[in-house]
Amino acid sequence: MPTTTIAGAEVTVDDEGFMTEYDEWTEEIGAALAANIGIELNESHWKVISFLREDYKAEGETPMLRRVSNVGGVPTKELFQLFPKKPAKKMSYIAGVPKPQGCV
Amino acid sequence: MTFVPDFGDDDGDRKICFIASKGTLDMVYPSLVMANAALGEGIETHIFFTFWGMDIITKKHQEDLQFTWMGNTAMHPPGGSKFHMPQGLAGLPGMTALATRMMKKQIADLDVPDVPEFVQMVADAGGHLWACRMSVDMMGLTKEDMIPEVEDIISATDFIELSDGAQVIFT
User: Fold this and answer.
1) What architecture is domain B16-68+84-170?
2) B154 has which bridge partners?
3) pLDDT at position B80, please?
4) Of A34, B20, B55, B155, which one has the greatest count of Cβ atoms within 10 A?
5) Lowest mean pLDDT: which of A70-79, B1-10, B77-86, B112-121?
6) Which domain holds residue A29?
7) Do A104 and B3 touch (CB under 8 A)?
């Protein structure tokens, strides 16, 4: 597994750049990952990212957009505003969890 | 070494238009699932509802789409069986209701949304929903009969214009 340096820490990533080790993530790393893709995180972003990490830990898989919306309580429209164009992939990238695998 | 995934923010010109022409519970899902996936990839996505697909966007029908395997010899009994559901059985009284109940349960077990919720999701994610003028005329519908998320009632020519340069997928 390749490693890279983010926010001064050494982090394990896959070939695309997504983090592979859940426990290596910190908020500083999250902010740096967001900056990498041109997103400045505000409170609404952090709410989504926290939900993603908690749900991944509890369920063992990254929630799909619908779950983030229904269970996480952030409306779909807002998710597209916070993480434009490819919300599911961008959120997972920043939150240090794998890309969601499902179809819906 | 720092590598950042390419989230393709610069290639904004891909466009997909789905045509939804069927109104049975099984056949309305392909366009919804794929439209949702396309929207999740940041692709401009349209769905043109026509003929039996009008039921998907009509308030009084969208919750109650039916399923039957009549005419569909590809349906197998659940559990990976080699057999094909007997056609004769499909036409018996109560079979459509039974088959519909079973299909709805299978869909719910997969945590896939029902049709009204799914259409709402597609609209919320930025999908454009269009109703076919000819179908509207034929079925005597008005915009009030349809869910508010439908942008407009358009003609075949309008659709050909709006799908210029798009991938068009007929379902």
Assistant:
1) 3-Layer(aba) Sandwich (3.40)
2) B132
3) 86
4) B20
5) B1-10
6) 3-36
7) no
Please indicate whether, in this complex, the C-beta atoms of A65 and B113 are within 8 angstroms of each other.
Answer: no
What tens digit of pLDDT does each residue of A47-92 get? Answer: 999 999 999 999 999 999 999 999 999 999 999 999 999 999 999 9
Q: How close A104 comes to chain B (CA, Å)?
A: 7
Residue B2 tokens, joined = 């720092």
Cβ contacts of B40 on chain A, cutoff 8 Å: 65, 86-88
**Shortest CA distance from B1: residue in chain A:** A4
Are A73 and A52 in a shared domain?
yes
Please report the ipTM that was assigned to this predicted complex. Answer: 0.89
* Half-sphere exposure at residue A46, Cβ-oriented, CA atoms within 13 angstroms: 9
The set of residues, in sequence order, having a beta carbon less than 8 Å from that of A90 and lying 6+ positions away, is A37, A39, A83, A84, B7
Digit-coded pLDDT (tens) for B69-81: 999 999 998 888 8
Write the residue in A36, A37, A65 that is nearest to B40 by C-beta.
A65
Q: Domain map of chain B by residue range?
A: 16-68+84-170
Among A33, A85, A92, A101, the strongest candidate for a mutation testing the B interface, having the largest count of B CBs within 10 A, is A85
| β-strands A3-6, A9-12 pairing | antiparallel
Look up A103 and say whether it is catalytic: yes
Distance from B26 to chain A by nearest Cα, in Å?
16
